[in-house]
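To: structure desk
From: M.T.
Subject: fold request, one chain
Message: Could you run this one when you get a chance? Sequence is below, nothing fancy, just the single chain.
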Amino acid sequence: MTDIERSKEVFDQFRTQYNTPYSIGDLTATVCTLCGVELPQQCAGTPIPSVIDQGDKLMDGVGKTQKVLLFCADALGENQRQYFKDDFARIEKIAGFRILSTSVMPSVTPVCYGSIFSGAAPCVHGIQKYEKPVLKVDTLFDAFARAGKNVAICAINSCSIDMIFRGRNVDYYSFRTDEGSFQCAMKLVAESDYDLIVCYMTDYDHQMHHHGPFSAECVEQAKLAADRFTAFAAQMDQYWKSYNRALVFVPDHGGHPVDETHGAHGENIPEDMLVNHFYRICEAN
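Reply: Done. Structure tokens follow.
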């Protein structure tokens, strides 16, 4: 069995279990297809037809998406969408496409983002527990770099996204706070020539573990995630308006309460395994 066949088997297992046709492993295949970039070597994800069709329609079947911003809001899964209805309604209204997807096991951040940005299952990309080694497999970022595109990753110092994708032809911007990552990504849209920008937000996940997934602290973070997604859309429309562009809300997993004041994730249960990826596709104007 090839690596791609092994990954497809894993993705299909969870798609079947949760009765949805999509996996978080489809993100890389979808973004690469939108942008006309060759998929990473081990990518077993499937381009999402509705998103690709929208890109083709807006760009007359000729042009490709030229600029992409991926907003990686950790742990804001389907369970959170059901609770923070107004915040997620704002995100969905701006995006236009909500793709209910299954995560992978164990449903923890480095395992999940390893699959999201390689299109490979954990047994192929190599991270199968909570650890942060540098991924050895081919990734979305390698594929974009090979295509001559400029990539930036904005994230908290030493977090999973800051660590596991090191050693690549990527510019890394590391900060002590989510606000630093957010402001950096906003500035890069306005003042740089990146083709792909990743902005990671960790504070909802942090507050969930310490206070519970629906605590006052998490209410604040869910609203902030929607605010930041809204701000990214406006910033892209101002500074990237002459480009075909995509903004994607990319959580890795959900989360569940374990007692009155703490939350967790990592289990093969709907609360942890179901997430939504929201795509906003815009043509140049």
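Reply (cont.): The chain has 13 helices and ten strands. Let me know if you need anything else for the meeting.
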